Amino acid sequence: MEISLTRYARAADGVSIAYVEFGSGPPIVQLGAPFNLTPSATEMFDWQRHLLEPIADKHRIIYVQPRGTGLSQRAVPYTLDDRSLDIPSVMDALQIDRAPVWAGWQSTFAAVRFAARHPERVSHLILHGPALRGADFYKPGSFVAAAAPLLEYDVRLGAETIGRGGPGHDAGGR
User: pLDDT digits over 21-32, tens only?
Assistant: First the structure.
């Protein structure tokens, strides 16, 4: 999987946001983990290569390193509202009006905030292993590997399945 050179977008509050692209096809914007301190996008993808390669065969994945992490600007404002500015900065830099937004674990908070405030920019909201309550983030288990084939087959169905099966949901999908 060939990963582009790291590029930067400027968020509305002036913070520099790092991102990389790989794959080809319609875009999917993936918001990275807020606790990631990995400086290199290649290192970051090593642990999730099994998930990303099949999706990148049919989609262009735009991986956004959130503010304060990776190669994005450090020592910056870090509220939920601030973090939700990272997504549109990259979409605007790439002239993407509307796309699926994909986030996992603690990044789901910022993705949901962005989707709620800008529904016209989000065609699908894909949440894997969402931390619906702070304590849920630390519970073991992930739907990521199991969901890869479903996301490849049908993004909407995969997003709904993951969203209803994540931590904090009972067997009835509530």
Answer: 989 999 999 998
